[in-house]
Specification:
Number of strands: 26
CATH class: Mainly Beta
Distance between the termini: 35 Å
CATH architecture: Beta Barrel
Number of helices: 3
Largest sheet: 18 strands, antiparallel, barrel
Structural class: mainly beta
Radius of gyration: 22 Å
Order of helices and strands: EEEHEEEEEEEEEEEEEHEEEEEEEEEHE
């Protein structure tokens, strides 16, 4: 199952959405409370129950240090104030986060910080930033400075536990409309961020950006630029963590309508990941690096939507050579406490991003909108299912022989979300995933060992926005 350093994100399955575009079946979204000029209160209860299994570790090594059952239950609260704009140009937003332990096991899956062994509850000032905006006839620009949930370029803010993570720095955005190509409405967008601190989703403190080995990273500078003309879209992103890594991504999207009932989408992403200095070298020497000096991840996806049904098939190929004795993987984050943005459809549950791995995924979703059961409307319900299989080679440390490795994952998500006109209401999600791998020894040679351990994971989310 996914290790906490690689940031488990099993909550989304990329499929085809309306108009058509890629959507994610999410059961969490704190941004739905953002009503400008109002105070917003948002509650979340989360339960995670993970069972892991590896016969080799249990037989020859006395079992897992934290036991074979992980997870716990926590309650989170997000209190947001989103101001309006004075003189239509300046405002100030702030957020308070709180997380309380209801139940937690020795390895609590990042519900609460367990480094002290007591899984303590916490509260923090999650956001506090000044915001600026300007605009003209066909353009708008915005800037945020302070602490916030900043998504830009190759960085994304994690929101998959009791409360979201936070980043410290500045983020800017520019949107230019009217760049049409014949009848196609063209839109240019640019965003960027400067980040010099982070507060992970499971703790209260703002810390320096840290590498996997605990070395300090001074700053992250990142940006993306894209052009969307409805029937096609292009996107380029670039991010540099000082003396640690340089990540770039290239995206191409092609869309086509299918009558009045749906559409098709072909989407491809290519990720170029590179080492960039002495902090990365320290991680490599400590055995915490994902690859030697470069890695790549290609992802190709085809999606269809017809009426209430949507589905997708995805292929990915990873190259991430590592010569320090471990099996490498495509490391796309900018640090242990800063999550990297990865739009690959095959990133659902475990990432299937081991060196030399080829992965196929099929997924389907049904939206119950317009249906009823016993006269009760089922609007707001949707169900998603996926199957994923990856294949790669690994060397057995006991025999020295190469082995063909196959890993598999199935996932089922039932989601309910009720939205009032002002985007307040109840959201409930139940997610079950099962992961299995055909060779137990992979956990002994992998640079991400907890990501290649067979197991089952049940998650229940209940969100309520007042």
């Amino acid at each position: 199952m996914k290790n906490k350093n690689a940031k488990l994100a099993v909550l989304s399955v990329a499929l085809l959405g309306a108009h058509p575009s890629v959507i994610a079946s999410t059961i969490h979204d704190s941004n739905r409370t953002h009503n400008a000029g109002k105070f917003n209160l948002y509650l979340r209860a989360i339960h995670i129950d993970t069972r892991i299994k590896n016969d080799l570790i249990e037989k020859d090594f006395g079992g897992f240090p934290t036991g074979d059952r992980l997870g716990g239950t926590a309650l989170g609260i997000i209190a947001d104030y989103n101001s309006g704009y004075w003189q239509d140009s300046i405002g100030f937003d702030t957020s308070l986060y709180g997380a309380a332990q209801i139940d937690a096991r020795p390895e609590d899956r990042d519900l609460l910080d367990d480094t002290s062994g007591d899984n303590r509850s916490f509260a923090k000032l999650g956001q506090a930033y000044v915001k600026l905006r300007r605009g003209g006839e066909n353009w708008t620009a915005g800037l945020q400075v302070g602490r916030g949930r900043f998504d830009a370029g190759t960085v994304v803010t994690s929101d998959t536990r009791a409360v979201p993570a936070s980043l410290q720095g500045a983020r800017g955005q520019l949107l230019v409309e009217g760049l049409d190509i014949g009848p196609l409405p063209g839109v240019l967008f640019i965003d960027g961020a400067y980040i010099n601190g982070a507060s992970p989703r499971d703790r209260e403190d703002f810390d320096k950006i840290l590498s996997e080995s605990g070395a300090g990273i001074d700053t992250i500078k990142t940006y993306s630029i894209g052009y969307d003309a409805k029937l096609f879209a292009l996107k380029y992103s670039r991010g540099v963590a000082k003396d640690f890594n340089k990540n770039s991504s290239y995206g191409l999207t092609l869309r086509a309508p299918i009558g009045e009932r749906g559409g098709a989408i072909l989407e491809s992403y290519y990720y170029d990941l590179r080492a960039a200095g002495n902090v990365w070298d320290r991680d490599w020497a400590a055995g915490d690096a994902g690859f030697d000096d470069k890695a790549s991840w290609l992802n190709i996806n085809l999606g269809l939507e017809i009426d209430n049904w949507s589905g997708g098939i995805s292929y990915s190929n990873t190259k991430a050579e590592l010569t320090n004795g471990k099996l490498g993987y495509a490391y796309f984050d900018h640090g242990d406490n800063v999550d990297g943005s990865l739009e690959a459809w095959t990133r659902s549950g475990s990432d299937f991003n081991n060196d030399g791995e080829e992965t196929w995924q099929v997924a389907a979703k049904y939206d119950f909108k317009g249906n009823s059961l016993g006269g009760v409307p089922l609007d707001g319900f949707n169900f998603t299912a996926l199957f994923k299989r990856g294949k790669f080679d690994a060397t057995n440390p006991f025999t020295g022989a190469g082995s063909d490795i196959q890993e598999n994952e199935v996932g089922y998500l039932l989601n309910y979300r009720f939205d009032e006109p002002d985007y307040q209401g109840l959201s409930v999600g139940v997610l079950f995933t099962r992961y299995w791998i055909n060779e137990d020894f992979v956990a002994l040679v992998s640079a991400q060992p907890e990501n290649v351990v067979s197991g089952k994971d049940l998650r229940v989310y209940l969100d309520y926005a007042f």
